[in-house]
Amino acid sequence: MYLVYADEQGNVFDHPSLYGLARSGEMIVEMMEDELIPLPEGATLVGLPSTRAVGMDPDSGEMKPLPNNAQAVGALLPQGFTRLYLPGYVKTDKEYKLPLFGYSAVVWKDGQFYVAAQLTDDPEKWNPMNCDTDDLNEGVKRLTEKYPDNRLYSHLSNCALGYECLTSSNTFLNRWEGGVPVSHSCNAGCFGCISEQPDDSGFVSPQTRMNFRPRVDELVEVMLEHLKTPESIISFGQGCEGEPSTQAKIIIDAIREVRSVTDMGYININTNAGLNDHMRGIVDAGLDLMRVSTISALDDHYNAYYKPRGYNLANVEKSLRYATDQGVYTSINYLIFPGVTDREEEIEAMVEFCRRTGLKLIQMRNLNIDPESYLGLIPKAQGEILGMKQMIDIFKAELPEVVIGSFTHVPPEGMARPKKIITL
Q: Average pLDDT of the chain?
């Protein structure tokens, strides 16, 4: 498995003799054959600016950085694939921050590219190749013309066509999980926020946050257009917004109005779940699914990344427990990072967190971050680093009732929350 690198023009090469290496946290390590899979359809190879690729001499075992103009290469994986390692590299400019993506180690083997990753969910619905451009343009035209005064459709059209957001695209294609953003504000200051960064952060947000507060009727129009099949999902809490529960009142009013008309499909919220009273109201209004974003079940790690304002991890746990007790199908959006998430203390804490909250699904999501910045922010490891593959195996063994996946699922038959038609 040979080293892959790129020149300054972005041309990608495989090295004739050096083996590829990877990173687990701060450590440069070797990869095992059983940790590699062929580069998945929909993955993208990117050069890592201001880095030098690092390979290994197979005869001596010596690690060798390539010249300055030989950048490391990383793979950006489609949803459904969990990375096991970061690319092996050293930075040539310590101050440079890599763009906010989740880079995975890639090598050349048997005449093709391989990545250090594991399939953790069925990627079919989230394969960009399944989003037909002509159909999407037609859907955008149809719904923006049908609802010319609905600012959400105008906003989502840019997300779908400009950012190629698949959730927004689904909203216009009337299929699977669609998005309905609602909030321009947030009660957290996430270090890796993809929609809003402080001017002095050094990061460039890959998306622009919505800048208006939608009306209830705008939410209802989007929701009713989408909830037309038994397996359709409409989700509050998108990458282009802040924390949806800060707008709890309009969410509650919209859910009640929609459920007075139809009990079709599922209403989901992607949330940090820190505002307990707001979350209780949203659950009681008729929420079906709840996905809570977290990076750790340890307070010091959680606080360092999320920088919560007016809440803590105990509030998050309380919201999850309440939703689970009310029959909501609960999950976590688990932001993972090789060399951190697979630390012994992190695994133990997360297993206990899952047991206490009774959640049903762990959605493994590759953390989009500059590795050096993140590692400099969070606490140092206290125990052994077990490896991502072993971490997943431990979750499966210790939490046999919890599904390991990568995105929101419709609940298995028999686990769905009973729908209640609410009369206004």
A: 92
The DSSP element (H or E) to which 28 belongs, if any, is strand 27-29
Closest CA to 266 of 322, 292, 218, 227: 227
Q: Give the pLDDT confidence of 215-225 residue by residue, as tens digits.
A: 999 999 999 99
Return the H-helix or E-strand segment holding 376: helix 371-377
Helix axis angle, 216-226 to 248-259, nearest 10°: 50
Q: Which residues of 229-264 are buried (b: 16+ CB within 10 A; e: fewer)?
A: eeebbbbbbbbbbbbbbbbbebbbbbbbbbbeeebb
How much is the pTM?
0.92
- Stretch 324-347: mean pLDDT, rounded? 97
Cα dihedral 261, 126, 147, 206 sign: positive
Distances (CA, A) of 273 to 56, 187, 244, 294, 308: 45, 10, 9, 10, 11
Q: For residue 43, what are its two tokens?
A: 């993955």
**Are the C-beta atoms of residues 180 and 223 closer than 8 Å to each other?**
yes
